[in-house]
Amino acid sequence: MAPKDKLTEYERKRLETIRRNDEMVAALKIPSKASQLTGTAKRQRVSVEESKSYKPTTEKKSEPAFVNRRSLRTRGMPPEGVGGVPVLEKVSPRVEGPLSMAAAHDGAGCNGTLVATLLSINKNPQIVSPPVKAESAGGEVVKKEEAEYGVSFDSARVKTEGCNVGMKEEKKDVESLLDLGSMKLETDNIAKVVTGNVMNVKFLPCSDLRMVVVGSKSGQVGFWNMDSTRDDDDHQNGVVHLYRPHTGPIGAILFHESCFSKIITSCYDGYIRMMDAEKEVFELVHHGDDGIFCLSRRPNDDKSLYFGEGLGGLTVFDDKMGKVSSQWFPHEDRINTIHFNPRNPNIMATASKDKTARIWDLRCVGSGQPRCLKMVSHNRAVNSAYFSPSGCSLATTSLDDHVGIHSGIDFEDNCMIPHDNQTGRWISKFRAIWGWGDAYIFIGNKKNGVDVISPVENRVVTTLKGSEIIAIPCRFDAHPHRVGMLAGGTGGGQVYVWTSS
After folding, report:
1. With contact defined as beta carbons under 8 Å apart, do 246 and 273 qualify?
2. Is the pTM of this model over 0.70?
3. Domain extents for the chain?
4. pLDDT tens digits for 185-199?
C-alpha cells in the first residue's frame, strides 16, 4: 500500500469508511453468530440423513414403454383449446367396433321414439322427381346419357348446348315457386340441437316429415324432429334426440338413398360409422390413423364411399367388400369437400386447403388417379366447392374473401364475388350452397344474417334477417323436397329453419 502522504483525498476517505464499517461489524459480533448458524444447519442435515434407513439397491427402475405419439398437426387435425376456446368436458371413448345407440345416447330425447320414427318412414318410400329433360338448341332431344344427366364431358370438354337449356328451364320453374321476400324465420322453427359448434346440418330427404340432422364439433349427432311435440314444460320446439358416436368434429352426414334408417357419419378422429336404427347400433364402417375431413357418395351408388383423408388424400371405400378399393392424392393439403355433379355422377369436384378447387373425370384414370378437367385457384384455402342442381355451374368459397362462380364451356367463365368469409376459430367456416335451382346461392354473414347471391347479377341481392337470430349461421342445407325451406346451424348449437309461403 502506498504511504498515506501519497494517497489522494478520495482514497483516504475510502479507507476511513472501511475502518468504521469493520469496527461496527465487530461490535455486533456478526461473524461469530454466522458460524454458529452454519454449524447448527450442518448438524441438522447429518442427523436427518443418519435417521434414514434406506438400503442401496442394484435393481434398475423399469422404464416406460416407448410410445410413438403423433401431433394433431401431423395428422391434419385442428388443435383443441387454442385461442381461449375451451375443450368440451365430455368425450366419448374410441370404440373399436359397433357402438349401441343406447351407449351413445347423450341424454336428450328417447331412443325408442327416434327408432320408431325412422322405421316408419322406411315403410313409405319417397317419390323423387325425375331430372329435367335437356334439349339441344335445335329442339332435338340429345342422346340418352345427356338427357338423363343434363351435362356430359366429351374429350374433357363440357357439351353445354343441352346443359344450358336444361339449366334455364329449371331456373324458371324454381323462380316461379320461390319468392325470397316470403322466406321467414318463425319462432317455432328455432331449436338448440347440439351443445357445441355445428359442423354439418342436413335435412332428412323426406317429403312428409321435417327432420334436421346435425353434427357438432364435439362428436355429437342430433336429430331434431320439427313435427313432434314435447310432453314437458320445456320451451324447446319439436323433439331433439342426441347421440355422441364420435370423439371429434363431424366431417359429413350421408343418408342411405333407399333406407332412411341408415345414416352414415364421418369424423376427424378417422372413424366412419353407420347408424342402423333397425339394429339400434352405430356400426363401424372404416377407421384409420389419419383424420377424415369430408365424405361423399356418387348419386345412385350405395356401394362406394369417397372421403378426404389426411393431408391431400382421397380414399375410395368399397362398402360391399368392406375395404379400401383405391386411394390417390389429388391435393397437397387436406380436402374440405367432395361433391358429385348431380346430373353426371362421373364428374367430381374437390375443395382443398391448398388454395385450389378441382374438377375430375372418374372415367379418365391415368397415373393412378382421375384426370383433372379444371383447376380453380384462390389466394387462400378453399372451404367448399359445390355443383349447382343443373350441374352446369360450380360455386367455390375461400378464405380469400371471395365466392367464385364457374360456368360455361369447361367451366371457363369465372366470376369472383367479394364476400367477408372470416369467421375465426369460434364458428365453422362459411360454405356457400346452392338453393333449389341455379338462381340463388346462400351463405352466412357476420351480422347474424344469410346473404343471397345471384349468379346472374354476380352480387348479393338480399339478406335474410330476423330479430330471433342471436348467433351467426355458418352451415346450411336446402330441403330437397320443400322449396324455400332452408336450415342454418350456428357456433352455439342452434339451428334456424326458414320457410317460404
Report:
1. yes
2. yes
3. 107-126+168-197+285-500
4. 999 999 999 998 999
